[in-house]
Amino acid sequence: MPRLKSRIGAIAEFAVLSLTISASAEEPLVTDRPDFTESSSAVGAGVLQLESGVTYAAFRNASSVITAGEILARWGVLEKLELRFLLPTYARESGQGSGASGFLPTGVGLKYELAQGDGTGFLGGIEAALIASTTIPTGSGDFRNSDWQPAAVLATSWELAPTVGIGTNLGVARPADDRTRYATLWASVVLGVGLNDTMSVFVELYGFEREENRGPSTVTIQTGLVYLISPDLQADFRAARRLTDRGVDFLAGAGLSWRFGG
After folding, report:
1. What is the rounded CA–CA span in Å between residue 125 and residue 114?
2. Which of 14, 100, 226, 262 is deepest in the core (most CB within 10 A)?
3. Residue 218, domain CATH
4. How many domains is the chain built from?
5. Is the pTM of this model over 0.70?
């Protein structure tokens, strides 16, 4: 079921956030969900951050997929370096008179901050980070994958105003589809607006050169809301729809993120 695996990868493995909202200006809570665009900062030395969620996605062939868990564990080993662990996510597909369920492959990675947006460093006022990751040959049932799926992302962001920011991603991956390995590129841009000290909204566009071997290009628009329950606990909500002939017809999700230590 390679096409389903590719679609779920786009939904669960790369569902991330670049918005920053917090009641504390010194130590804002920055998560890698719910938007697609990866954030451009690490969690900081000694911090463990858990980000989780559930997603429903419907496709034009009348099939649908539900994923639950989507837990990304981010551990700051240095101030500018974090290790990343994608824990098992449960998935259930239904439609077209058949169904499947199981766990998606796990993954590991790291994020390194290249610049912190303070005017120093070779990138000046731009905040930037480099992310390298791969799935591990794991999973269960129809979702089991016997190949490593490496990817790399350059994440950047700028502050346009005290409550307005923009983030971008440029990514490259070398996945395998039925043991045929191919290269693909993707890009995204997100605009975030802080409504108050605890609430923020975003809108973004993201597109893949292809989501499967010899597949078409896809573009998706997504919007959502982030609510800071406490300085270390955040809730999020999101919805997305395709702008091209192929891709997810409709997507909706919600999640929670916790920060420990630091």
Report:
1. 11
2. 226
3. 2.40.160.40
4. 1
5. yes
